[in-house]
Design brief:
Order of helices and strands: HHHHHHHHHHHHHHHHHHHHHHHHHH
Shape: globular
Largest sheet: none
Structural class: mainly alpha
Helix content: 55-70%
Oligomer: single chain
Strand content: under 5%
Length: 579
């Protein structure tokens, strides 16, 4: 999808990947591949291989797999140097960032030069792409959309131009839930395409991306379920399906998609002996697998996937950004289960060539994890100092120059650090008994969290909404706590931690029948959870302990801290804790 190519949807583990800076002519030739869908667009060429590689590039363009799409279009241009549409594809697949502007302009110039003998449809597509190349995705947007609208009106029977237009218009949702500019228009186009072309993989991929950031991801459930059979070799589609199914609480199906994405990437790099950093989806899929295990109460499983991610990063060359993302995946798993000491012990060594953003995120994660340990042991002065140091990181990161492409942006890191600092400050104020200041800090954290960009780093602190709900329970605001808990559980219906919070809020509100139902739901979500999980023991105690068990749950802890012994590390930094 063009929206994915012109605007990154998620941070990349690797700040730079192989071949990204290579000119189109120098890209290594790819093989023709199966399992990427069956989209095709007849172009003006007498070379069958050129048509085949163009179709492959088009399919990859719909998946948002820019690097592999460039290889396919470049090979089409080698097979037929007079094929204008090959250079059209290279114009669109070149990627974001001002440093690629000359490359896009050169590809567009070649496409315009060669388009004289092409069909009317091809010429109009080339002209539309040239508007983006000349003015950039932002300034050229109105002219590109207008040209594509005229094109789709002239060729209503062709699905590819309409899909390209819809893919470009997808603009996500704002922090208050309102659709971005062009989003409803794109969804209308995609609805028509789904009815007319129910087996088009690119349409289903765009439909999943259209609803993934919304409050109604269930709208794309059928597409997410169908994509793995339509594009079994397209790891970006498998990743998108797994991400959406995870949001819907369908953990088993999500895990199958995510594991398939890792396997597809492994097969892709093994087939041609390619470097690991060209694989588009394996690293984010491993992070999501770790997150999914944490949601269903599998602490050891979450660590296993985090360890596999670190092993993959080491095999790819241990670039600082990749090391940091792998380490924070493990830190998040420890914090999710309340094992703060284990989180503080995760090594975060990046080397001397780390950027300002990478160093800032590393320092923030260290400060937060150590402060969480200090909070457990009652060293509130250390927590206060950590809050001040986190606050001091924010201005320096906010004033740093923006980054381009896949590199971590300092301003995105600043936003994430600010959320973590406010969450920690609210927890500290609650421990001191100041409910007003605690509520104010956590409300700020919630507002800041809603404004986080999806391209920024993952949030490494405890979920502010859950922390605020527990603090409200502690200070006797049960109804407000229940509202927050239900809101959080609605967003993550497959997360046992969120459902446990709902159950405990119902206990605090003396809604015992609702609590009983919620604890049963917790037991169902955590049916394969680690047996030592304290929340699992509380749920079992409630359902089997009668009135005495219910009375014991009326005092709800103010933070998700386990009461069992804190697990310690083994010999290496990636030993699975809690075994």
């Amino acid at each position: 999808m063009l929206a994915r190519l012109f605007r990154a949807d998620a941070p990349s583990v690797h700040s730079h990947v192989a071949w990204e800076d290579l000119p189109d002519e120098a890209l290594p030739p790819p093989p023709l591949r199966e399992g990427l869908g069956d989209a095709q667009l007849p172009v003006t060429t007498r070379v069958p291989l050129a048509q085949a590689y163009f179709n492959q590039g088009l399919r990859l363009l719909h998946l948002g797999w820019a690097l592999e799409a460039r290889r396919a279009f470049a090979e089409a241009a080698r097979q037929d140097p007079s094929l204008a549409m090959a250079w059209w594809g290279l114009t669109l697949a070149r990627g974001v960032g001002a440093r690629f502007t000359p490359d896009r302009a050169e590809a567009s110039r070649k496409a315009l030069t060669l388009a004289e003998g092409a069909t009317d449809l091809e010429q109009r597509l080339v002209v539309a792409a040239s508007l983006l190349a000349d003015k950039g995705p932002a300034n050229g947007r109105p002219a590109f959309v207008r040209e594509m609208e005229c094109l789709t009106d002239r060729f209503p029977q062709e699905p590819e131009p309409r899909l390209l237009l819809a893919g470009f218009l997808l603009d996500g949702y704002e922090s208050d839930g309102r659709p971005g500019q062009g989003q409803p228009y794109a969804q209308l186009i995609l609805r028509d395409l789904l009815r007319a072309h129910p087996r088009h993989a690119g349409v289903h991929m765009a439909w999943v991306q259209a609803w993934l950031p919304s409050s109604r991801p269930e709208m794309a459930r059928e597409s997410a379920e169908l994509l793995p059979s339509l594009v079994p070799a397209g790891s970006p589609a498998l990743l998108a399906s797994g991400r959406l199914l995870l949001r819907l609480g369908r953990g088993l199906e999500a895990n199958r998609c995510l594991e398939a994405a890792v396997a597809a990437d492994d097969a892709y790099v093994a087939r041609e002996s390619l470097p690991l950093d060209v694989a588009p989806s394996a690293d984010p899929a491993l992070r999501l697998l770790s997150e999914g295990c944490a949601e269903v109460g599998q602490y050891r499983g979450a660590q296993v996937w985090a360890r596999k991610l670190r092993q993959r990063v080491d095999a790819a060359g241990s670039r600082p950004q990749a090391v940091l993302f792998a380490a924070t995946t493990l830190v998040a798993a420890h914090l999710r289960f309340g094992f703060c000491r284990a989180a503080a012990e995760v090594p975060l060594e990046l080397g001397d060539n780390a950027t300002v953003a990478e160093k800032g995120l590393r320092d923030a994660v260290r400060l937060y994890a150590r402060a969480a340990c200090a909070l457990e042991t009652g060293r509130l002065g250390d927590v206060e100092r950590a809050c001040l140091m986190l606050d001091a990181l924010v201005p320096a990161l906010s004033e740093a120059p923006r980054s381009e492409g896949r590199a971590l942006c300092p301003r995105d890191v600043a936003r994430t650090v600010e959320v973590a600092a406010q969450e920690l400050r609210g927890t500290l104020d609650a421990r001191r008994g100041d409910s007003g200041r605690a509520e104010a800090a956590l409300t700020r954290a919630l507002r800041l969290e809603r404004r986080l960009r999806p391209v920024g780093p993952a949030l490494f602190c405890r979920p502010p909404r859950e922390t605020l709900a527990r603090i409200r329970l502690r200070f006797g605001r049960e109804e407000k706590a229940l509202e927050l808990a239900l809101e959080r559980a609605g967003e993550r219906p497959g997360c046992g931690h969120s459902m446990l919070l709902v159950a405990e809020a119902h206990v605090a509100c003396s809604c015992m029948s609702e609590a009983a139902r919620d604890f049963e739901a917790v037991l169902d979500l955590w049916r394969d959870a680690d047996p030592h999980l304290p929340g699992l023991q509380r749920a079992r105690g409630f359902t089997s302990g009668g009135c005495r068990g219910r009375a014991a749950l009326r005092r709800v802890p103010d933070a998700p801290v386990d009461t069992g012994p804190v697990p310690r590390g083994g010999r290496g930094p990636w030993t699975v804790h809690g075994g």
